[in-house]
Amino acid sequence: MEDFLLTDQDRATLQYKVTTKLREVILKGDFKLGDRLIQEEWATKLGVSRMPIREALRQLEVEGLVRIEPRRGAIVTPISISDIEEIYQLRTLLEGEAVERSLPFLEEDDITELESLYSQMISLNNTEKDVEEFMKLNAEFHRILRHGCPWRRIHSMIDTLWKGIPLYTPSLLSNHIKEAHQEHKQMVEFIRQNEPKKLRRIMEKHILRTRDNLIRMIEKKDVEKD
Prior knowledge:
InterPro entries: GntR_C, TF_FadR/GntR_C, Tscrpt_reg_HTH_GntR, WH-like_DNA-bd_sf, WH_DNA-bd_sf. The protein is mainly alpha-helical. The chain has two domains: 10-76, Orthogonal Bundle (Arc Repressor Mutant, subunit A), CATH 1.10.10; 81-225, GntR ligand-binding domain-like (Four Helix Bundle (Hemerythrin (Met), subunit A)). The protein is built from ten helices and three strands. A three-stranded antiparallel sheet has the order 1-3-2. The mean pLDDT is 89.
């Protein structure tokens, strides 16, 4: 069994760390559909009280990774390949449309901020702390890319799809971050060149590549179980 015990340094951001650990073991396939995630067991494994476990489970329920049932507790509902296909196909359609419509409305300050975020991302290493920082910068990069889109409803739909796995994908696929850097660089270049259709295509490629890598990760985990 993997050693999940959190260090003293981890406790500086305890709630975030507990939620991240539990999310990772679910997304990486350590549980099967219907398995119980027992608070007492995970409090012991992580070296924390039950309170942060309870709060983490509430967040994971919002993300659709667990279901809280009376008298049974947290029931794991892991992401399937079908879920990945649905989430990322919808993201491709919606975010491709959003960034294409956003570009004409982006101002110089927006573009400068995107360039700054890109520079910060490529300066990071592959440590756990840097991957966490990359996730925050990446989410903000994508938000600014699409925030100029005048369609109000598309933003709420994209925000819903981003809850859960898309936000935390870099922690699962940290060995693919270099590919993300190249795609982010192209996005900034196409914005500077005022090429909305090219921006849309690279965004679609970016999302579909991530989808394919996630599916391969799940398939590999399934093979290892057999």
